[in-house]
Amino acid sequence: MTDPHPYAALSPDTVLDAVEQAGHRPDGHLLALNSYENRVYQVGIEDAAPLVAKFYRPGRWSDEVIREEHDFAAALAEAEIPVVAPLCNAAGESLLRHAGFRFALFPRRGGRTPDLDDPDHLEWLGRYLGRIHQLGAARAFAHRPRLEVDGYAGTAARLLLDGGWLPAELAHRYRAVTDALLTRCRTAFDAAGGAQWIRLHGDCHPGNILWTDAGPHFVDLDDCRMGPAIQDLWMLLSGDRQERALQLAYLREGYETFHSLDPREVALIEPLRALRMIHYAGWLARRWDDPAFPLAFPWFNTPQYWQDHVASLEVQLGALDEMPLPLL
Predict the structure, then answer these.
(1) With contact defined as beta carbons under 8 Å apart, do 126 and 251 qualify?
(2) What is the per-residue pLDDT across 124-173, written as a single tens digit (0 to 9) for each?
(3) What is the CATH number of domain 119-319?
(4) Domain 22-107 architecture
(5) Can you say whether the dihedral through the CA atoms of 155, 158, 160, 164 is positive or negative?
(6) Quick one: 139 exposed, middle or buried, by C-beta within 10 A (0-12, 13-18, 19+)?
(7) Catalytic-labelled residue, pool 203, 222, 232, 290
(8) Of 34, 72, 176, 293, which one's alpha carbon is 20 to 30 angstroms from that of 80?
């Protein structure tokens, strides 16, 4: 008999009871939000704005690691940087517990995806990322992970190979391309070894930025970690090489108002993309026993997925031979 999934006991009543125990009065309205690593809900509150309740995946992070996320978010918010930080209860605690789950409550913030084709949006985002990194560089995380080749992607590649996820006819190609990518990424990280590793958002893709008429605000610091500043910039770049170079120029113009971008880090963009590609497939495999994942990602672990994934990694290996984006 298999063990029940960690979230099996997280019923709607459990969520509402947890919010009530934290000192709020739920009105019964509950909306599951688009999150898979954790479970996140919008909870209606009587005579007040709704709250967002984030239930941390059991066994993933220690309390110390989660508290560092909360402390970082709170420090950014205190510096008037638009990051959505968790709320504290009457005892001043942001990491709460109920029915065996750890959770946090956040104010609800609406917004839309930023327009990354708009130079003004890019400069605006750059300014705030510069401010995040200015504060992030002030000291190091004590408990949260570092963005390292083996810890971030090497373990994922080994999981997929050792766990038999790859079809037999693709396993050799996958091993060859991931070995080559990881070797090239280690070389790139060594070459940028003089660059400063700082506290980062860590997962700064457009879905974690909500845009309003007042500008952007950043959500979900669940993957904040130590790493190179460019990690929070490269996921905002898209299009062909010239388009990405121009986008980076606009981001950098705003960014360097508050924090200097080490030019050596630009050479890490494609290695970081490669690491994320490997990591993402490993993440899906690691979470495949969670019933939410087969429903949300039905294309994963099909023969076509693995064919496309290996081919994409081979294309990415070629991208590592290209010159870094120019700094315009």
Answers:
(1) yes
(2) 999 999 999 999 999 999 999 999 999 999 999 999 999 999 999 999 99
(3) 1.10.510.10
(4) 2-Layer Sandwich (3.30)
(5) negative
(6) exposed
(7) 203
(8) 34
